[in-house]
Specification:
mainly alpha; 2 domains
Length: 115
Amino acid sequence: MPWWFWILLWAVLLVGTAAAAVGGGFWLVRKALRVVRDAGGVLTRLPGPSVMDSAAQGDGDGASAPGSAVFADPDEMRREYERGKAERRTARIARRVARRAQRGQAQSLRDLGLI
C-alpha cells in the first residue's frame, strides 16, 4: 500500500472520531437542557416555604418534626418507635378482623386475642 493511503486512512479516522465527539456533545447538551427544563417545571410546582415550615413543625397529631431524632434521647426514640410499631400492628389486625368479618371468613384466634 502506498504511504499516502495511511495518511488518508488516519485522517478519515480522526475526522470520524471528531464528528462522533461533536455529535455526542450536541446530544448530551440537548438532553441536559431538557432535564433542566423539566426540573424547572417540577420546581415551580413545589409548595412554598410557609407550607414546608408548617409541615416541619408537625401536623398536631403528636408526631415530632423531621430531623428531631438526631438530637433526641436514644431511649426515648426507641420507646416512640416501639409505640408506633405496636399501634400499626393493632391497626393492621383490626383491619384484617374487619375485612374477614365482612367477607364471612374464619377469624384467627390470635387476631381475636384468644390465644
